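Obj.: predict assembly geometry.
Materials: sequence records (below).
Method: joint structure prediction, all chains together.
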Amino acid sequence: MRRSHILSLLLVILVAGASFIGVLSAGWKPVLGVQLQGGVEVVLRPADEVTDEQFERAIEIIRNRVDAIGVAEPDITRQGNQVVIQLPGVKDKQRAVDLIGQTAELTFRPVQGIFDSEDPNQLSGLKQYLEGLAENSDSGGLSETSEPTDSEPPSLEEVLTPPDQDDASAQVVLLGSEGRTGFILEPAQLTGEAIEEAAATFQGQWIVNVSFNDEGAVAFDSMAVANYERQVAIVLDGVVESAPTINATEFNGQAVISGSFDEQEAKDLALVLRFGALPVEFERDDVRTVSATLGEGTLRAGVVAGLVGLALVGLYMLLYYRLLGLVAVSSLAISGATLWSIIAWLGESQGLALTLAGATGIIVSIGVQVDSNIVYYERIKEEVRRGRAVRSAADGSFRAAFSTIIWADLASLIGAGVLYQLTTGTVRGFALYLGIATLIDLAVSFFFMRPLVVLVARRLVNERRSRLGISETKEEVAT
Amino acid sequence: MSLSIKRMYQGNTSWDFLGVSRRVLVCSAVAVIICLAALLVRGLNLGIEFEGGGVWESPASEAITTDTIDDAMSSVGMDDARIQRIKGGDDIFRVRGELPSEETAESIGSVLAEAAQVDPESVSARTVSPSFGDQVAGKARRALVVFFILIALYLTLRFEWKMALGALLAVAHDIALTVGIYALFQFEISPATVVAFLTIMGYSLYDTIVVFDRVKDNERSLSLKARMTYSDLANVSLNQVIMRSINTTITSVLPVVSLLVVGSLFMGATSLQEFAVALLIGLLVGSYSSVFVAMPTVAKLKQKEPHWAEQDRSAEVLSASNSIENAAVTLAAERYDRSSPPRPRKKGRKR
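Observations (raw structure tokens):
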């Protein structure tokens, strides 16, 4: 019995110590969530019913986009019918949000005409042209220099195609991505599905290489023949991203888009071309950007509060339970080291970040852990007061105490399990870490607390009750 | 007084918890009614996660007032925005309102940064679609129902249905009080506070289970001919675990208080503050309810069982003076006296 106790103690210390040191020397650190280090968190939900396959594909595309903007520890998970995207520490937050959110279909539309959206004359002319088009559906050329009409020049909204009428098979009027140049566009000839690969490269200037799949190559060539030496607009989300001129009639599935791109623009265009078409349209349910300073402040406050709280708890346990308090403090230390290793491992291997809610779950679990000690110690004290020897009480009380601990911890685990399965986001993170910490508590109680208490009771207490915080005065013992 | 503290420390108390509980329960009932009334009248102050909308936060310097921010917000069509200066280690401005359709979260953020004269990168923002809250609330409700059913099943299997009922009643009491306080003082409900409520439920159950476990243990050790009423049994058990309850409450409350004091007063982390307030109230109410709500409910139900009803009748005839102390002695004797045949036990338990 005694040998197995010492063995168990040594084993726990070895396992906890080795994993802790291992994690430290491997340079693994817990990955901090968005709220603790700043960054972006986005929750997306499909606007319509989607199949599982479409959903998984969409998440794959989002993951690719996120990887492409180079976030250190992205965490992208499907939680029920939502996608939760966490990008802790991401630098250009707005760009990240935009790229993730881009869900619209990518189309190629031949350009019919271009106008300056800030020139009232051109707007009036355009309006007349569009009205004429609506009345008799024969298509005439756009008269760039129509006479100014008597009426007020139309506002930009009147001529632009509203987003809900932006149909691939219709003629549309859209703005360029810089917000000024307007485009009159023919029905779409090609969608993003035609594209196999797109990459930005530098060859004297920044260009984008595009390669098409077999079907796409044929369709692109036929568009090129029909629109030779004309512009073709690349349209995403109702915005003309780029409108290169077709300079050949035969591309054999390879095209080069050149223009006055800077590096960023070329790379973004390549990204859009590659992952432009999500099979699912998403709505942004929750978009959160946290500044690095706010994140750091919260983290610092949490860490300081946690440490102060731990110190107070340790002090109280030492004062109240004396030598046994020492056991409680070491149990906390062992649990802490194990928990740290697990969190760091989860961050390293699963990309799972420690969130603010998770951190609070851990602070809560301090209470659970300490309670396991208190349940046991109170049992021991009770037995000792009844006149039992300390060493035999320490051994004998564990069974009943551990049964209480198991049943109470089981309730916590049921709660954590239900919450983890049925909720998303904040609450889920809390449930995860509460569950992990509770499991650690069970293991530490059995394999560490018990043998250490028995050892302390035998070696250090020497049957002096005051060392357990029990007053020496003789009490009446019930017999 | 010093004597009773000493006895407490020695775990040698004989308080009549159940006797007191009747009066205490009246106070509880009144408190619950006040809280429910507050909930009905004032409603809950729901955060943007439930209502939809946006929140922007930026560092606040002394020189700039909330009026300046207000003007800037009005200029971009956010006349209804609520603007607060939140005190703490470093003050922050907090703007909450509906996002105007022609603006983006980013553009409002830069307007705020300009008005507060800070770097746009130091602005934090959050926008939530209106339907999101319904989903969050729906999921939380479903999780809660499943949780209650599972816990009721678990407690029925582990103990008995009467105890399951008592425990859930105590949990309902705790949640009613905590949510009521949120309605009364119009604290904002965020997912963090939902987490806090869930924690409170967990703690409350945990505490109650520890109490019930002891009662069951004591009940098993009684022989059939032992003279003891159920309320005496419950009282002795409560006295046995009361120091555990107090100590556990103290050690659980200490980290929370430090979260509240250190975290928020000195360092200005408001998200921690909200969480800690809910937790603190819930922890205190939770340990109180295990003793004064859960146990009396169970005692009330158990006293109707034939065996315990008979014990009550014979106790009336005898009218023992200090029944709790006597019961404690009886219980200790039963535990250690092996000559009397024990009650049939389900599990092969030693001692």
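Conclusions so far: The longest helix of chain B spans residues 230-266.
To do: check interface contacts against the pulldown list.
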